[in-house]
Amino acid sequence: MENKLAELETRLAEIKDLESAAYVLHWDQNVYMPPGGAAARGRQIATLTRLGHEKMVAPDVGRLLDALQPYAESLPYDSDEAGLIRVARRLYEEKSRVPPQFTAEFYDHTAATLEVWKEARPVDDFAKVRPYLEKTLDLSRQYAGYFDYEHIADPLIGRPTQDPGMTVSIIRPLFAELRDQLVPLVQAITAKPPADDACLHQHFAEEEQWDFGIEVIKRVGYDLERGRQDKAPHPFTIEFSIGDVRITTRVDEHYLGSALFGTLHEAGHAMYEQGSRADFEGTPLAGGTSMGVHESQSRLWENLVGRSRGFWRHFYPKLQAVFPDQLANVTLDTFYRAINKVERSLLRVEADEVTYNLHVMLRFDFECQLLEGSLAVRDLPEAWRARMSADLGIAPPNDRDGVMQDIHWYTDYIGGMFQCYTLGNIMSAQFFDAALQAHPEIEGEMENGEFGTLHRWLIDNIYQHGHKFTAPELLEGVVGGPMRIAPYIHYLREKYGELYEL
Ligand code: ZN
Fold first, then answer.
1. CA of 320 to the centre of ligand 1 (A)
2. Which of 266, 273, 295, 353 is catalytic?
3. pTM score
4. How many whole angstroms from its chain centre is CA 70?
5. Per-residue pLDDT tens over the stretch 460-469
């Protein structure tokens, strides 16, 4: 059995190497590559991806996994070997059930859709992308059909790259409960005078913003010996190995919040990847549990830590020293209110902590309805306006800032694309609560710019396990139960109740 396991590990390491090599090419494409390289780079990435896919679905791998199954079942569920076989099987199943012709057709279709979306969005022409989106919906349904499911969105949500272990029957009631709590909270907050965030909208030189961001992420625990930061128009985190997890950021010289919180967000993702157990290197156990748990980590650092008063008690005097002309006369309280301003807005990516989830839940519900057939693509723009009015009290005057605003549906499936953001928010509060219960000193440490206890707790309880458990399994182990919205709602009510005198 040990020989077979070693053979599986060797094969998985080769697959991971091909994948990581493709990631390097992808990173370079987004950071340094001149435009002339685009066509060849697309081909190069496709070749490596295809080789990895072929290796994964090779009949030998299926035979190895079958032979190892009884062995895996004889081991404790949380053993590394059982975890490796389990995760490898999930990857194998997903890749081998979907015919290669389908995958090729889907990639061709999304490549074409993306180009049409890029042209249609600026001119607000939904009719132009509509037939493409209708085909995406057909293909998404077809994808689901390769699997057994309770709800048609489940196979899309449960993809190994999305949120394995999560289903519509888990998510729907949670989101419904959250929406019931959030809609009145947003109404109560927006009935109050808006926070003044003019202090964030001044001129802040790029270099100083960059250096300050680096100081912050070093301090919270991002290891620059095993990472680096570069500029990219759409910030992302990418992992080549546990020893090389890179982030990107963008800097807006006229808005301080963009680089600052974007950097902290990506560092949160990267610290998670850096925290995988070193001996998971080269195996599919390295990395994060799921998109949702990943978001819980980026948001924990960005929001629960990075938008807290305690955090800024330490960092604000330092920020004032970097930008004395802009901030010397702005108090900590004014700054704190500015970075936590709540407002009704049209765009998900610009939404604050309180309204953000309403944007996400709308998309999740529409994905489910589209897949079920209870909503047609042609009715989507109208449905979008109606739901925005009901939830946020604001409706987009056009489709550019409505149904066409996010890239997701124009470059991937319809289904499983959005839930991770809100699942992440919900879990971030559950995890943070558990950390504070174990170590009440964390809050005091944050005010002194010390993050070691929190970082250590996250490594021990979450990061080190990498991909070994699903999100429900991880939660069970860390907080002793399933996903619950109460800690998140409590956090929002406390913080914004104080800020807006509710
Ligand atoms: Zn993120």
1. 28
2. 266
3. 0.96
4. 35
5. 999 999 999 9
